[in-house]
Protein backbone atom coordinates (compact mmCIF):
# COMPACT_ATOMS: atom_id res chain seq x y z
CA UNK A 1 0.00 0.00 0.00
CA UNK A 2 1.30 3.46 -0.92
CA UNK A 3 1.69 5.71 2.11
CA UNK A 4 2.61 8.69 -0.07
CA UNK A 5 1.68 9.31 -3.70
CA UNK A 6 2.72 12.51 -5.48
CA UNK A 7 1.02 13.14 -8.83
CA UNK A 8 2.06 15.81 -11.37
CA UNK A 9 3.35 18.20 -8.69
CA UNK A 10 4.13 21.75 -9.84
CA UNK A 11 5.86 24.15 -7.44
CA UNK A 12 6.72 27.63 -8.65
CA UNK A 13 7.68 31.20 -7.93
CA UNK A 14 6.01 34.07 -9.80
CA UNK A 15 8.70 33.80 -12.50
CA UNK A 16 9.81 30.14 -12.67
CA UNK A 17 8.80 26.55 -12.07
CA UNK A 18 11.06 24.90 -9.52
CA UNK A 19 9.29 21.53 -9.65
CA UNK A 20 7.51 20.68 -12.87
CA UNK A 21 5.18 17.68 -13.06
CA UNK A 22 6.88 15.41 -10.52
CA UNK A 23 5.23 12.06 -9.70
CA UNK A 24 6.41 9.29 -7.37
CA UNK A 25 5.14 7.03 -4.60
CA UNK A 26 6.52 5.18 -1.59
CA UNK A 27 5.02 2.18 0.14
CA UNK A 28 4.98 1.23 3.81
CA UNK A 29 8.24 -0.37 4.89
CA UNK A 30 10.16 0.84 1.82
CA UNK A 31 12.68 3.60 1.23
CA UNK A 32 12.70 5.83 -1.83
CA UNK A 33 15.98 7.56 -2.67
CA UNK A 34 15.54 10.99 -4.28
CA UNK A 35 18.80 11.94 -6.01
CA UNK A 36 20.16 14.62 -8.34
CA UNK A 37 22.46 17.63 -8.43
CA UNK A 38 21.98 20.59 -6.12
CA UNK A 39 19.14 22.80 -7.34
CA UNK A 40 17.23 19.98 -9.01
CA UNK A 41 14.19 20.49 -6.76
CA UNK A 42 14.55 17.66 -4.25
CA UNK A 43 14.23 19.70 -1.05
CA UNK A 44 11.50 21.94 -2.46
CA UNK A 45 9.52 18.82 -3.35
CA UNK A 46 9.83 17.44 0.18
CA UNK A 47 8.89 20.73 1.85
CA UNK A 48 5.89 21.01 -0.46
CA UNK A 49 4.71 17.55 0.58
CA UNK A 50 4.61 18.87 4.14
CA UNK A 51 2.77 22.00 3.05
CA UNK A 52 5.80 24.12 3.93
CA UNK A 53 7.22 25.45 0.63
CA UNK A 54 9.88 28.17 1.00
CA UNK A 55 8.81 31.81 1.21
CA UNK A 56 7.63 33.12 -2.13
CA UNK A 57 7.06 29.61 -3.48
CA UNK A 58 3.69 27.90 -3.90
CA UNK A 59 2.26 24.57 -5.01
CA UNK A 60 0.14 25.42 -8.05
CA UNK A 61 -0.79 22.03 -9.49
CA UNK A 62 -0.85 18.33 -8.69
CA UNK A 63 -1.98 16.03 -5.91
CA UNK A 64 -0.18 14.95 -2.74
CA UNK A 65 -1.92 11.86 -1.39
CA UNK A 66 -1.08 10.68 2.10
CA UNK A 67 -2.80 7.39 2.83
CA UNK A 68 -5.26 8.24 0.05
CA UNK A 69 -6.15 11.72 1.38
CA UNK A 70 -5.13 14.76 -0.68
CA UNK A 71 -3.01 16.99 1.54
CA UNK A 72 -3.65 20.00 -0.70
CA UNK A 73 -7.31 19.84 0.31
CA UNK A 74 -6.46 19.92 4.03
CA UNK A 75 -6.86 23.06 6.13
CA UNK A 76 -3.77 24.52 7.86
CA UNK A 77 -5.02 23.08 11.16
CA UNK A 78 -5.44 19.62 9.65
CA UNK A 79 -1.96 19.75 8.11
CA UNK A 80 -0.48 20.86 11.42
CA UNK A 81 -2.08 17.87 13.10
CA UNK A 82 -0.48 15.51 10.57
CA UNK A 83 3.02 16.95 10.90
CA UNK A 84 4.94 15.17 13.61
CA UNK A 85 2.20 12.70 14.41
CA UNK A 86 1.86 11.09 10.96
CA UNK A 87 4.67 12.70 8.92
CA UNK A 88 8.12 13.50 10.25
CA UNK A 89 11.05 15.32 8.65
CA UNK A 90 14.75 15.14 9.46
CA UNK A 91 16.71 18.12 8.15
CA UNK A 92 20.30 18.26 6.92
CA UNK A 93 21.72 20.28 9.81
CA UNK A 94 20.27 19.50 13.25
CA UNK A 95 21.66 22.77 14.59
CA UNK A 96 19.11 24.62 12.47
CA UNK A 97 16.21 22.39 13.53
CA UNK A 98 17.01 22.15 17.24
CA UNK A 99 16.38 25.19 19.45
CA UNK A 100 19.76 26.18 20.98
CA UNK A 101 18.03 27.82 23.96
CA UNK A 102 16.08 24.75 25.10
CA UNK A 103 17.35 21.53 26.59
CA UNK A 104 17.11 18.33 24.61
CA UNK A 105 14.60 17.01 27.13
CA UNK A 106 12.35 20.04 26.74
CA UNK A 107 12.32 19.67 22.95
CA UNK A 108 11.42 15.98 23.09
CA UNK A 109 8.86 16.12 25.87
CA UNK A 110 6.89 18.94 24.26
CA UNK A 111 5.95 16.45 21.53
CA UNK A 112 4.30 14.24 24.14
CA UNK A 113 2.60 17.21 25.76
CA UNK A 114 1.16 18.92 22.69
CA UNK A 115 0.68 15.96 20.35
CA UNK A 116 -0.35 13.24 22.80
CA UNK A 117 -1.77 15.39 25.59
CA UNK A 118 0.33 13.74 28.32
CA UNK A 119 0.04 16.02 31.34
CA UNK A 120 2.37 14.16 33.70
CA UNK A 121 5.87 15.66 33.59
CA UNK A 122 7.37 12.47 34.99
CA UNK A 123 5.76 10.34 32.29
CA UNK A 124 6.91 12.68 29.54
CA UNK A 125 10.44 12.59 30.92
CA UNK A 126 10.43 8.79 31.17
CA UNK A 127 9.32 8.52 27.56
CA UNK A 128 11.99 10.96 26.43
CA UNK A 129 14.69 8.93 28.22
CA UNK A 130 13.41 5.79 26.52
CA UNK A 131 13.59 7.50 23.11
CA UNK A 132 17.15 8.69 23.69
CA UNK A 133 18.10 5.18 24.70
CA UNK A 134 16.51 3.79 21.52
CA UNK A 135 18.57 6.13 19.34
CA UNK A 136 21.68 5.08 21.29
CA UNK A 137 22.44 8.25 23.22
CA UNK A 138 24.75 7.23 26.10
CA UNK A 139 23.56 7.99 29.66
CA UNK A 140 20.19 9.39 28.49
CA UNK A 141 19.07 10.25 32.04
CA UNK A 142 21.81 12.83 32.38
CA UNK A 143 21.94 14.00 28.74
CA UNK A 144 18.25 14.93 28.79
CA UNK A 145 19.13 18.20 30.52
CA UNK A 146 21.93 19.08 28.07
CA UNK A 147 21.70 21.70 25.32
CA UNK A 148 22.27 21.04 21.59
CA UNK A 149 25.74 22.64 21.58
CA UNK A 150 26.87 20.05 24.14
CA UNK A 151 26.34 17.22 21.65
CA UNK A 152 28.43 16.18 18.65
CA UNK A 153 26.96 16.43 15.15
CA UNK A 154 26.07 12.74 15.09
CA UNK A 155 24.46 12.90 18.54
CA UNK A 156 22.43 15.98 17.53
CA UNK A 157 21.14 14.09 14.50
CA UNK A 158 20.16 11.20 16.77
CA UNK A 159 18.22 13.67 18.91
CA UNK A 160 16.45 14.99 15.80
CA UNK A 161 15.49 11.41 14.93
CA UNK A 162 14.23 10.86 18.49
CA UNK A 163 11.99 13.94 18.22
CA UNK A 164 10.58 12.62 14.94
CA UNK A 165 9.97 9.18 16.44
CA UNK A 166 8.14 10.59 19.45
CA UNK A 167 4.77 10.31 17.72
CA UNK A 168 5.43 7.18 15.63
CA UNK A 169 5.05 8.81 12.16
CA UNK A 170 4.06 6.58 9.26
CA UNK A 171 6.11 8.63 6.78
CA UNK A 172 9.59 9.99 7.45
CA UNK A 173 11.25 12.44 5.06
CA UNK A 174 15.01 12.62 5.55
CA UNK A 175 16.51 15.55 3.64
CA UNK A 176 20.29 15.02 3.42
CA UNK A 177 20.33 13.78 7.04
CA UNK A 178 24.00 12.70 7.03
CA UNK A 179 25.77 15.22 4.79
CA UNK A 180 27.69 16.96 7.58
CA UNK A 181 28.73 13.72 9.30
CA UNK A 182 31.78 11.51 8.82
CA UNK A 183 31.28 8.19 7.09
CA UNK A 184 31.19 6.05 10.24
CA UNK A 185 28.54 8.19 11.93
CA UNK A 186 26.68 8.46 8.61
CA UNK A 187 26.27 4.69 8.42
CA UNK A 188 25.26 4.51 12.08
CA UNK A 189 22.48 7.06 11.54
CA UNK A 190 21.11 5.26 8.48
CA UNK A 191 21.36 1.88 10.22
CA UNK A 192 19.30 3.42 13.00
CA UNK A 193 16.66 4.63 10.55
CA UNK A 194 16.53 1.23 8.89
CA UNK A 195 16.07 -0.43 12.27
CA UNK A 196 13.17 1.90 13.08
CA UNK A 197 11.66 1.15 9.69
CA UNK A 198 11.81 -2.60 10.21
CA UNK A 199 10.13 -2.25 13.60
CA UNK A 200 7.29 0.03 12.53
CA UNK A 201 6.92 -0.35 8.76
CA UNK A 202 7.70 3.33 8.27
CA UNK A 203 7.85 4.67 4.71
CA UNK A 204 11.00 6.76 4.17
CA UNK A 205 11.96 9.30 1.51
CA UNK A 206 15.75 9.76 1.61
CA UNK A 207 17.13 12.81 -0.19
CA UNK A 208 20.86 12.43 -0.80
CA UNK A 209 23.75 13.04 -3.20
CA UNK A 210 25.52 9.88 -2.06
CA UNK A 211 24.76 7.02 -4.43
CA UNK A 212 26.64 4.60 -2.18
CA UNK A 213 23.99 5.24 0.47
CA UNK A 214 21.17 4.85 -2.03
CA UNK A 215 22.61 1.50 -3.11
CA UNK A 216 22.88 0.30 0.49
CA UNK A 217 19.71 1.65 2.10
CA UNK A 218 17.05 2.35 -0.54
CA UNK A 219 14.60 0.01 -2.26
CA UNK A 220 13.65 2.41 -5.07
CA UNK A 221 15.26 5.49 -6.60
CA UNK A 222 13.95 8.57 -8.42
CA UNK A 223 16.50 10.68 -10.30
CA UNK A 224 15.67 14.40 -10.56
CA UNK A 225 17.10 16.92 -13.00
CA UNK A 226 16.07 20.58 -13.35
CA UNK A 227 12.76 20.13 -11.53
CA UNK A 228 11.68 16.87 -13.18
CA UNK A 229 12.13 13.18 -12.53
CA UNK A 230 14.00 11.66 -15.46
CA UNK A 231 14.22 8.03 -14.33
CA UNK A 232 12.81 5.90 -11.53
CA UNK A 233 12.56 2.28 -10.52
CA UNK A 234 14.08 -0.33 -8.18
CA UNK A 235 17.62 0.53 -7.14
CA UNK A 236 19.11 -2.75 -8.35
CA UNK A 237 17.63 -2.36 -11.83
CA UNK A 238 18.40 1.34 -12.27
CA UNK A 239 21.98 1.06 -11.01
CA UNK A 240 22.74 -2.06 -13.04
CA UNK A 241 21.33 -0.68 -16.30
CA UNK A 242 20.59 3.06 -16.23
CA UNK A 243 18.51 4.08 -19.22
CA UNK A 244 18.64 7.88 -18.95
CA UNK A 245 21.99 9.46 -19.94
CA UNK A 246 21.90 11.65 -16.84
CA UNK A 247 21.55 8.64 -14.55
CA UNK A 248 24.41 6.96 -16.38
CA UNK A 249 26.51 10.09 -15.94
CA UNK A 250 25.84 10.23 -12.19
CA UNK A 251 26.79 6.58 -11.77
CA UNK A 252 29.89 7.11 -13.89
CA UNK A 253 31.03 9.78 -11.43
CA UNK A 254 30.93 7.35 -8.50
CA UNK A 255 34.43 6.30 -7.33
CA UNK A 256 34.97 2.58 -7.87
CA UNK A 257 36.75 1.16 -4.86
CA UNK A 258 37.42 -2.06 -6.72
CA UNK A 259 39.01 -0.23 -9.65
CA UNK A 260 41.20 2.61 -8.43
CA UNK A 261 42.54 3.21 -11.97
CA UNK A 262 39.07 4.06 -13.28
CA UNK A 263 38.68 7.67 -14.43
CA UNK A 264 35.48 9.31 -13.23
CA UNK A 265 32.94 10.47 -15.79
CA UNK A 266 32.42 14.23 -16.08
CA UNK A 267 29.02 15.57 -17.11
CA UNK A 268 29.84 18.70 -19.15
CA UNK A 269 28.14 22.02 -18.53
CA UNK A 270 25.82 23.12 -15.74
CA UNK A 271 22.12 22.52 -14.95
CA UNK A 272 19.84 25.26 -16.29
CA UNK A 273 18.70 28.05 -14.02
CA UNK A 274 14.97 27.94 -13.14
CA UNK A 275 13.64 30.72 -15.44
CA UNK A 276 15.90 29.94 -18.39
CA UNK A 277 14.59 26.47 -19.24
CA UNK A 278 13.91 25.73 -22.91
CA UNK A 279 10.87 23.79 -24.14
CA UNK A 280 12.84 20.67 -25.09
CA UNK A 281 14.64 18.15 -22.91
CA UNK A 282 16.38 20.02 -20.12
CA UNK A 283 19.36 17.71 -20.18
CA UNK A 284 19.85 17.97 -23.96
CA UNK A 285 22.64 20.64 -23.86
CA UNK A 286 24.75 18.27 -21.72
CA UNK A 287 23.66 14.97 -23.23
CA UNK A 288 25.95 12.85 -25.48
CA UNK A 289 22.89 11.18 -27.07
CA UNK A 290 20.94 14.38 -27.88
CA UNK A 291 19.39 14.70 -31.31
CA UNK A 292 17.24 17.33 -33.05
CA UNK A 293 13.96 16.19 -31.53
CA UNK A 294 15.40 16.55 -28.01
CA UNK A 295 15.55 20.33 -28.41
CA UNK A 296 11.95 20.76 -29.52
CA UNK A 297 9.75 18.75 -27.13
CA UNK A 298 10.22 17.49 -23.61
CA UNK A 299 9.90 13.68 -23.47
CA UNK A 300 7.06 12.40 -21.31
CA UNK A 301 7.78 9.78 -18.68
CA UNK A 302 7.16 6.36 -20.21
CA UNK A 303 7.16 2.91 -18.70
CA UNK A 304 9.96 0.52 -19.60
CA UNK A 305 8.33 -2.31 -17.66
CA UNK A 306 5.96 -2.70 -14.70
CA UNK A 307 8.41 -1.01 -12.30
CA UNK A 308 10.73 1.26 -14.30
CA UNK A 309 10.12 4.45 -16.23
CA UNK A 310 12.26 7.03 -18.03
CA UNK A 311 11.80 10.44 -19.65
CA UNK A 312 14.09 10.31 -22.68
CA UNK A 313 13.65 10.31 -26.47
CA UNK A 314 16.80 8.25 -26.97
CA UNK A 315 17.46 6.18 -23.84
CA UNK A 316 20.54 4.10 -23.32
CA UNK A 317 20.20 0.57 -24.74
CA UNK A 318 18.94 -1.85 -22.12
CA UNK A 319 22.06 -4.01 -22.33
CA UNK A 320 24.58 -1.19 -22.72
CA UNK A 321 25.54 -0.70 -19.09
CA UNK A 322 28.16 -2.80 -17.39
CA UNK A 323 27.64 -4.52 -14.06
CA UNK A 324 30.65 -2.55 -12.90
CA UNK A 325 28.32 0.44 -12.47
CA UNK A 326 26.44 -1.54 -9.86
CA UNK A 327 29.68 -2.75 -8.34
CA UNK A 328 30.88 0.86 -8.10
CA UNK A 329 28.30 1.55 -5.40
CA UNK A 330 28.53 -1.78 -3.62
CA UNK A 331 31.61 -1.25 -1.46
From TrEMBL:
The UniProt record lists the ABC transporter domain at 4-251
InterPro entries named among the record's database cross-references? AAA+_ATPase, ABC_Ni/Peptide_Import, ABC_transporter-like_ATP-bd, ABC_transporter-like_CS, Oligopep_ABC_C, P-loop_NTPase
Membrane-topology descriptor: Peripheral membrane protein
Q: Where in the cell is it found?
A: Cell inner membrane
Q: Which CDD domains match?
A: ABC_NikE_OppD_transporters
What's the protein here called?
A: ABC transporter ATP-binding protein
One function term, GO molecular function aspect: ATP binding
What organism does the record attribute this protein to?
Answer: Caballeronia jiangsuensis
Family from the record: Belongs to the ABC transporter superfamily.
- SUPFAM superfamilies for this protein: P-loop containing nucleoside triphosphate hydrolases
Query: Which keywords label this protein?
Result: ATP-binding, Cell inner membrane, Cell membrane, Membrane, Nucleotide-binding, Transport
Where does the record place a coiled coil? none
Q: Which domain of life is it from?
A: Bacteria
